[in-house]
Amino acid sequence: MQDLNALLLKLMVAIRDHANDYLQKSQKKHLATSEEKNPSLAFVNNKVIQLIEKHEGLSEYLKNRKLDNWENDDEYVAILFNELKKQDWYGEYLREISTDFKTDKLLVSKLYKEVIAPNDKLYEYLEDHRLTWLDDFPLVNTSIAKMLDKIAEKKADTVFSPQLYKNEEDREFSAALLQKVILNDDKLAEWIDGKTPNWDKERIAEIDMIILKMGIAEFLYFPSIPVKVSINEYLEISKEYSTPKSSLFINGILDKLVKELTKNGDLNKIGRGLR
Q1: Which of 2, 82, 119, 140 is the most buried (most CB within 10 A)?
Q2: CA distances from 1 to 9, 115, 132, 136, 139 (A)
Q3: CA 74, CA 270: separation in Å to the nearest integer?
Q4: pLDDT digits (tens, 9 = 90+) for 199-208
Q5: Phi/psi zone of residue 127: left (φ > 0), alpha (ψ -120 to 50 degrees), beta?
Q6: How far apart are CA 127 and CA 268, in angstroms?
Q7: Is 38 left (phi over 0), alpha (psi -120 to 50) or beta?
Q8: What pTM did the predictor assign?
Q9: How far apart are CA 46 and CA 55, in angstroms?
Q10: What H or E segment, with its residue span, contains residue 99?
Q11: What local confidence, expressed as pLDDT, does residue 255 receive?
Q12: Which tens digits make up the pLDDT trace of 125-147?
């Protein structure tokens, strides 16, 4: 997943570089138009893409992982740049006399969401290159789109994190949580049954079911994690990755479950104040 994330970030830089080459070649044409002789440099100087390009962690990761796809397969970069040129909002952006960070951010966000993410040729390329990337593609798209919406000029560190885990303890916890959820899937689903009177299980968003099962697993199998910490964490995850109303739905279900687990004596937390 990290490889795909880094590669798609690099793709925006590659499209910018291709645009720069295109402008230089257009200027040298024998019968260049006045627009070609004096082109807008707004996209070439886009401040958000410059932030991505200068991110040391991303550059180091791409180098170490030898992710030079867009240098070797630049025809896909050309395809995406040609799609970008067709967009009315791209033309409007180029006609701006000057652009600020907010305008640049909006342009890059549209580039990713409306040109890169839905492109069939890119999808086929990723499928041919590494089949497992297709499973990661939706999640990575969501992650990058949200990052671009939130990116700030003085917070470039949010662009890319080369480490999937903060430390070894974080990695071990993630593996243990995944194992508990998978091995106890039926049991966790039973705890949810009856707590959603207005919803059939089939109507609950799949990501919401996963979040609920992870929350219940923390309640049952991780005694050192306070209930409030678990609930708050999964509410934030639902806001980030699920539907606008999911956090209210998940909060209601988890709250009911905590009360039931406490009443039945199934909520065994170690330490003071963990409930």
Answers
A1: 140
A2: 12, 21, 9, 6, 9
A3: 56
A4: 556 668 888 9
A5: alpha
A6: 46
A7: beta
A8: 0.69
A9: 15
A10: none
A11: 92
A12: 999 988 888 888 988 998 899 88
Written as six digits, the tokens of 160 are 């890319």
- CA distances 254 to 7, 81, 213, Å, are 37, 46, 10
Record the tokens describing residue 50, joined without a space: 């410059």
High-pLDDT (> 90) share of the chain, %: 60
Nearest partner of 261 among 188, 162, 203, judged by Cα: 188
Location of structure tokens 């200027």? 27
pLDDT of residue 244: 81
CB atoms within 10 A of CB 259: 11
Kindly calculate the radius of gyration of the chain based on its CA atoms and give it in whole angstroms: 23
Q: How far is CA 48 from CA 8, 140, 242, 245, in A?
A: 14, 18, 26, 31
Instruction: Say how far apart CA 199 and CA 62 lie, in whole Å.
Output: 45
Nearest to 153 by CA among 261, 41, 78, 54: 54
Residue partners of 151: CB distance under 8 A and separation at least 6: 48, 51, 105, 158, 159
Q: Which two tokens stand for residue 232?
A: 């708050």
Query: What's the pLDDT band for 267 if we cut at 50, 70, 90?
Result: confident
Name the residue among 172, 78, 62 with its Cα closest to residue 121: 78
Q: Does residue 2 register a pLDDT over 80?
A: yes
Dmax (CA) for the chain in angstroms is 83
